[in-house]
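[audit] Reproducing an earlier prediction to check determinism. Same input, same settings, fresh worker. If the tokens differ from the archived copy the diff job will pick it up downstream; this log only records the rerun itself.
[audit] input (534 residues):
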Amino acid sequence: MTTEQNGSNYPLIISNSGHTTNVALKSDWTKYGYTSINNVLKENTYILKPRKEIYNITSEVDRPKVDVLNAIHVLNTIDKKVCSGSANRLSQMGDVEDHYKFLKKIYQGCQIVLGNLEITHIKANADISFFKDIQEVEGYVLIATNEVKSIPLENLRLIRGETLYNYTALSIFSNYKPNSTDGLKELPMRQLQEIIHGGVNIKNNPRLCNLHTINWKDIVHSNYSVSVRYMPFGNCSECDIACNGSCWSHGPENCQIFTKLTCDQTCPGRCRGPKPSDCCDCKCAAGCNGPKETDCLVKTTCNEEVRNRKICYGIGHGKLKEALAVNASNIDDFENCTIVLGNVILSIFTLRYRRPLLIVVAGIGVKSLLQRSPYCPFVYCDNYTKTPVIDQAKLNILKSIREITGHLVVTWLPEMYNDLSIFENLEVIRGRPKFNWKYALVVSNVSISSLGLKSLKEVSDGDVIIRRSKNLCYSDTINWTKISRTKQQKIKISNKSPEECVAEGKICDPLCSEDGCWGPGPSQCFSCRGKECA
């Protein structure tokens, strides 16, 4: 058995008899009493992989809160090669040749991409056959600024969309060379059957054929949007007659495979045909070869659990694209929301909603010139929507949120709140995009005495700044390195001094570990000294 460390943000890859599997950092699985990969495989039928970590679930006491969409069967990866993927977006790694070598090194022979699949800056004559083995991507797929004619992703079955690129799981754009005939013409993703989380955006590909014929409703979940702008500049072959008008490229082998829209109405999810006997088990993603759970092409969790997750738009995205903050006009949009696509902002515009006549940005603060509205002579509100002052108790609606893909900013909170318990179930802040291009989490100028973010386990990207809250304690006790995903993320905390907090008895419960706490009592421990602290 050999181990290979792929970087501080990625799991160990364990190799045994030529096979590879992902079992998380050694520190993660040894703390549950496992000393080797053989013990993990022997004692667990399933393991859960929340983001870049894997924990056993044989003990409900030790079981962390995880995203149900990321549950995978350990046997899916036993005989498959995994790779870390990348998060460079459109950045080029060195010159063109260096970038090509970088991609080849990561994806050669890779079947499961633990992060994002980013295919960018590839010249027309490059050999990119090393992409052909990829079957599953945990994050997003980005295909942009390429000049190559075809990209061999014919074995890609599933995009989980654990992380998104501009709110999409599949982005394909600007794949051409100006003033030339070079450019992406075909993308034969003939095995792609499901995108679990995130939408699709395809634009500015003047030579790309056939993708406009795909019925994306069979692939993308109904919560997400699909935008395909078809602008062929040249000859495109029509779909083969066997494809019934939906294909990835020419030829019968590139017909779209339907696993949802053609299913019998009794099927719990995917299917392999129109009959009731063709239904897949509810745990199957991207289709199946038979009716049993063991016949799944890829495993996820049953749709009953998935339906309990509601996706909603946050500030700066979708229907709230023009909104400045959560306020009385949009607070109900967050009812039962678990994943926010966008940002959550509580500011002066939450209480006194009005378009600013003047905005001056100073540091991370926003000052605005407000005027009284003729429609609202006693309160500030919006001249156009006549938005009233928010019912402050309604902020409890935000308690259902588990994930924010953008940033969280709190610069105003009613005095009735001593902490941010309205976000007590928040587990992940993605930080895409960041506030002021820098921050994922901002808490400033509020009267709270503790954060109360007891479920927060990850800030994926962006800095954290918590300051100017004169009553705030405990925040400097948190081991923020266990929440940040990269060493580049910075933590800035400046509130009530630790000495004053100690003098007032505002210290972590004795049952809390050295990783600190979010507030008073054992329920606010970041982690426990023993097996249980709450």
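[audit] rerun output stored. Observation attached for the diff report: Residues 96-107 form the longest helix (12 residues).
[audit] end
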